[in-house]
Amino acid sequence: MAVWLAFLRGINLGKRQVKMAELRTCLEAAGFAAVKTVVASGNVRFEAEGTAEAIKEKLEKTIEAQFGFGVGVVLRSEAELKAMLTAHPFDSLDPKADFTRHVLMFDKPLPENLTIEDRPGHTEILRIDARDIYIAGYRQPNGRYTEGIEEVLKPLYAQLDKGVLDTMRNWNTIEKMLA
Lower CB count within 10 Å: N or C terminus of the chain? Predict the structure, then answer.
C-alpha cells in the first residue's frame, strides 16, 4: 500500500469540530490503513491503494458521512511530501531572523508563470511550485507573524478559478508528517 498525507481544510473551526481519535476511527472503518493524525488541525497520514483522485473523493465522502459536513482535502503522496522537504525551500532565509514558515497547498496545479508581489521583511513568497507556495512571515511590532498575509495573497485568488481548494500549514507540521 502507498503512503498518503491528507490536509483537511476548515475543521476544528467554530461548530465544525472533529476529534482526531474519532477521525482516525472513521478512516480505519472506511478501509484506510496505518492511520495517524498529526496535530489537531486535520493532518492525516495513512496507507491506501488507488489513484489520488479516488482516494481524495473517498476521504471527502467518508468524513462528510461521519461528521455531517463537507471537508475539502488537499492530498499529497509520500514521494511528493519527501520532495517538498528535500527541496529546503526556506534555506535562503537568515536563521537568526524572527519568522515563521508556511506552505500554502492547492489541490490543483497553479497557473504557470504565476507571480505574487510580496512584502520583504513582512510576508515573503520564497517559491512557487506547481501546487505549493512557500511563505515566510516575519514577526511584526505587534508580535504577530502572519498578519497581512491575506493582503499579499489577494491578487493570487483573483487569478484563480472560483472553487479552488487550498489549505495552509506551518512548516513544522509538514516536517512532522513523515516522522
Answer: C
